[in-house]
Design a protein that fits this description.
The complex is a heterodimer. Chain A is α/β, with parallel strands linked by helices. Chain A contains 11 helices and 22 strands. Chain A has 2 domains: 199 residues, FAD/NAD(P)-binding domain (3-Layer(bba) Sandwich), CATH 3.50.50; 120 residues, Rossmann fold (3-Layer(aba) Sandwich), CATH 3.40.50. In chain A, 28% of the residues lie in helices and 24% in strands. In chain A, the strands form 6 sheets. In chain A, strands 1, 2, 13, 14, 15, 16, 21 and 22 form an 8-stranded mixed β-sheet that branches. A 4-stranded parallel β-sheet of chain A has the order 10-9-11-12, with helices on both faces. In chain A, helix 8 links the parallel strand 11 and strand 12. Chain A is globular, with a radius of gyration of 22 Å. Chain A starts with a strand and ends with a helix. By secondary structure, chain B is an alpha/beta fold. Chain B folds into 3 domains: 81 residues, Alpha-helical ferredoxin (Fumarate Reductase Iron-sulfur Protein, Chain B, domain 2); 139 residues; 104 residues, Rossmann fold, CATH 3.40.50. Chain B contains 22 helices and 8 strands. Chain B has a 4-stranded parallel β-sheet with strand order 2-1-3-4, sandwiched between helices. A 4-stranded parallel β-sheet of chain B has the order 6-5-7-8. In chain B, helix 20 links the parallel strand 7 and strand 8. In chain B, helix 3 crosses helix 5, helix 12 packs across helix 21 and helix 19 crosses helix 20. Classes of the chains: A alpha/beta, B alpha/beta. At the A-B interface, helix 6, helix 9 and strand 13 of A face helix 1, helix 2, helix 3, helix 4 and helix 16 of B.
């Protein structure tokens, strides 16, 4: 099978790159090994939340300039332009987000902490500084839903000088869903509440419990396919209403994954779900084709290849007792040889292994046995030099490096 | 240090790799509509930890699993969630009910029924028969039974096609499956038409038994294993003659390639690579430049492709859809991959009817919105479910290709290859 570009990895970085290339008219295939870490998403995207010293960043575009040379943002070129392209790409996929690359806003985490963010889905709670635009919040939770610790969230809200009342709500259908408590998860609740009629019932239940609150907050349990039902609920609730991220599996993340895939396929892209790239055939510094686990006997040939396989969790990187390696193509990896230096004892310190990743040149070409590969690029978390937890930079690195590589390939 | 430690995961079905991320539950068609089902994570790797300590932790709710394997496709850690659940069911066997034995024995019941096909079809369509099936047999009255053919595919083949097959220089063997043999011989005829036009002779296996999908689903594992061994034996003799064994059913293929070893311990290591879906076989020949296809200029159709669950698990939808996309007059709409709810014999059972239809609901709506003349899918039980629930006819990709094929031109193109 012949393609212009084959992308290994079907998460945020792989799909962003795939959409950008397919939109430019390329024939693209994405090989996706299982579902992605978008399923743990918060409904917000980070560009740069904290600088290298750990201070909160207000203007990511400016702060990115001060990152160490090894950080992948230094290979993006015009960060503001790439960020704008990312935002357009999301909007065209039907993912409506608010935010600016030059000014972070704040969001609330599922345990009530305040964190900076770049973009946030339209129906989700955001605020500037530590002031909510209200006096009294009705913090609602569905009875039996355990992935939304209201006590922590209420504590976080009260620190912002608002009155908070926790209100349990339910519907007959949600009570039914509790029969299997282990399945009372955000994504299943979203499926139970998957039609307009039930959303209208839910709105009535919320309105009857909202009392004199001037803001309603609800766990993110609505709108797994798109934002239609979430927006409908917002319209029906009599005071301003916003969603707050829950503990995964995440409804907004599942939605983003589905919408990005849909957009990619609508542009003519081929999405090979649940398959795995297993090896490549090289000719000199060029990768000719890859083979996958499921398509035995069929080589996926392409002019360019993109590695978007993620970090350790996505198994884009694998460690054993002696080394860290890239398992598909055996690309060169930046890591510390001395295993005792991979981690620090204090779990809250920056962990060195977080910055391990594949080695790339200035155009994000990968390297194998010390030689740059002319047609193999890497994007997203598989890149070295980014501690996405400490910098709050995960989605930004995913999307901006993906867009950079797509642009580099198109320019060729 | 390394040589003193366990370097590889050694647990069966990779279950120790489960991170408890719950992504499988996001894609489980059953837990979305039936709150009584504990979901794939709980039924699979979580429950397995208890069952390993004491088998009494087996939960009857595991029978609600469709064996669709969408949990395995979704799992980022490569855990065979569906196999863990099926294995647990195998380790806690029940005596199958008469109904389950009837539904599962597709070839025995099929050969009885085809003998008196008009009577069977008439009787199965009667309200009174449906009422009896519903109340006594617990087969849901809403179901339409697939009609039985009056002539088996094997009978047709031996009378009309077998004699011509040796004149070709290249050959394949065809595992037609129960559906083609008893219900829809036309699909088998369509395959013969395509293969012959490409210069391939088609042959039946020495002895073909039902692949066993329905037997596994209904707990008749010993019979499934025996039939599997017969099939592997027949295929070995075909392979020894240099023939690939092709099929036209994604589920039969998946069962014989993967479930035989994962669940039944039927050895297929020497057969697996030579056993493939006909669309994949054709695509690979085309991709390697070994055959060519020509299509009729006057063929026009708008169809939607539905990815059957086991097709999704095999990752082979790309072969069928790539082949279909080669037909110039075909306007192909891709439906979002999701379970139709039938899962073989599951949806026929009265206790599952409601769950089955709820699962399929979103697919049925998507088909209605797609505004197509037909749906195409590689699985026959999806066909029954979609035809019954939407009224849209469902065709196997092979039937579409056979219909669109310019036979004369194709024969000409492949003459000297």
């Amino acid at each position: 099978m012949k393609f212009n570009t084959v992308i290994m990895g079907g998460g945020l970085s792989g799909l962003t790159c795939g959409i950008a290339l397919a939109k430019a008219g390329q024939k693209v295939a994405v090989v996706a090994t299982g579902q992605s870490s978008l399923h743990f998403g918060s409904g917000s995207l980070d560009l740069l939340g904290y600088d290298a010293q750990g201070a909160v960043v207000t203007n990511p575009v400016e702060a990115i300039k001060a990152l160490p040379e090894s950080h992948p943002y230094n290979k993006v070129g015009d960060v503001a332009a790439a960020a704008a392209q990312a935002q357009t790409l999301l909007a065209e996929a039907g993912i409506k987000v608010n935010g600016r690359a030059t000014a972070n806003h704040n969001r609330l985490t599922p345990i009530g902490a305040v964190k900076p963010a770049w973009l946030t889905l339209d129906e989700y709670l955001t605020f500037d500084g530590d002031k909510l635009q209200c006096k009294k919040v009705a913090l609602m939770n569905i009875i039996g839903y355990l992935d939304f610790p209201t006590k922590f969230i209420a504590e976080g809200l009260r620190k912002m000088d608002v009155e908070v009342e926790v209100k349990p709500i339910t519907l007959h259908e949600l009570n039914e869903a509790r029969k299997s408590p282990t399945e009372m998860r955000a994504t299943n609740i979203a499926k139970v509440l998957g039609n307009e009629e039930l959303v209208m019932h839910l709105a009535a239940e919320i309105n009857s419990k909202a009392g004199d609150a001037d803001m309603v907050l609800l766990p993110a349990v609505l709108g797994i396919k798109n934002d239609a039902l979430a927006q409908l609920l917002k319209e029906q609730v009599r005071v301003p209403m916003h969603f707050v991220a829950t503990i995964p599996p995440s409804v907004p993340g599942t939605r983003m994954q589905a919408l990005l895939r849909k957009r990619f396929e609508a542009l003519g892209g081929t999405f090979l779900n649940g398959d795995r790239a297993v090896k490549g055939t090289f000719a000199g510094s060029m990768l000719k084709s890859i083979e996958t686990e499921k398509l035995e006997g069929t080589k996926l040939e392409a002019e360019n290849f993109v590695l978007a396989t993620g970090s350790f969790m996505g198994r884009g990187l694998v460690s054993d007792y002696e080394k860290v390696y890239e398992p598909v193509l055996g690309l060169d990896v930046d890591y510390i040889a001395d295993r005792t230096q991979w981690t620090r004892d204090n779990v809250f310190e920056a962990q060195p292994y977080m910055e391990f990743g594949v080695k790339t040149d200035a155009q994000l070409h990968t390297v194998k046995d010390g030689k740059v590969l002319a047609n193999v690029y890497a994007v997203g978390q598989v890149l070295s030099g980014n501690n996405k937890v400490k910098l709050a930079s995960g989605e930004g690195v995913d999307m901006l490096t993906a867009i950079t590589v797509a642009n580099n390939i198109i320019k060729k | 240090m390394a040589d003193q430690m366990q370097l590889n995961n050694i647990s069966e079905n990779n279950f120790e790799q489960c991170l408890k991320c719950s992504i499988c539950t996001v894609y489980c068609p059953v837990s979305a509509v039936n709150p009584a089902y504990p979901g794939p994570k709980q039924s699979g790797p979580d429950g397995e930890r208890y069952r390993l300590k004491d088998p009494k932790f087996f939960n009857e709710a595991l029978k609600m699993c469709l064996n669709c394997k969408r949990c395995e496709v979704a799992c980022p850690s490569g855990v065979n969630v569906g196999d863990i659940i099926q294995k647990a069911r195998m380790n806690n066997p029940h005596k199958p009910k008469l109904r389950d034995m009837m539904l599962a024995n597709t070839d025995f019941v099929g050969s009885m029924a085809t003998m008196v096909a008009p009577i069977t079809n008439f009787a199965l369509g009667l309200g009174v028969s449906k009422a009896v099936l519903h109340s006594v047999m617990k087969i849901d009255k809403h179901r339409t039974f697939p009609a039985y053919a009056s002539q088996k595919f094997e009978t047709w083949f031996k009378k009309n096609a077998a004699a011509d097959q040796d004149k070709y220089s290249k050959h394949v063997s065809y595992f037609h499956g129960c559906y083609v043999n008893y219900n829809f011989p036309q699909l088998g005829k369509d395959l013969v038409k395509i293969m012959n036009a490409c210069g391939y002779g088609v042959h039946l296996l020495d002895k073909e038994k039902c692949c066993g999908t329905a037997l596994i689903a209904n707990g008749m594992y010993d019979q499934a294993k025996r039939q599997g061994e017969t099939n592997m034996e027949s295929m070995r003799s075909a392979i020894a003659k240099g023939r690939t064994v092709v099929t036209t059913s994604s589920t039969c293929t998946f069962t014989m390639r993967d479930e035989y070893t994962h669940l039944l311990e039927v050895d297929n290591h020497d057969v697996r690579d030579h056993l493939t879906l006909a669309t994949r076989f054709l695509f690979q020949l085309l991709d390697d430049g070994k055959i060519k296809l020509a299509f009729r200029d006057d063929y026009k159709k708008r169809v939607a492709y539905h990815t059957a669950c086991h097709m999704e698990r095999m990752g082979w939808a790309i072969y069928s859809t790539s082949l279909l996309k080669m037909i110039p007059g075909l306007d192909l709409v891709m439906l979002e991959s999701q379970c139709c709810g039938i899962s073989g014999t599951y949806g026929f059972k009265r206790e599952n009817y409601e769950t089955s239809q709820k699962i399929g609901d979103s697919l049925f709506n998507a088909i209605a919105e797609a505004d197509v003349e037909a749906v195409t899918t590689d699985c026959e039980t999806c066909k029954w479910q979609i035809e019954m629930s939407t009224g849209t006819p469902v065709l196997n990709p092979i039937s579409i290709i056979a219909d669109a094929l310019d036979v004369e031109k194709t024969i000409e193109l492949n003459k000297n290859r």
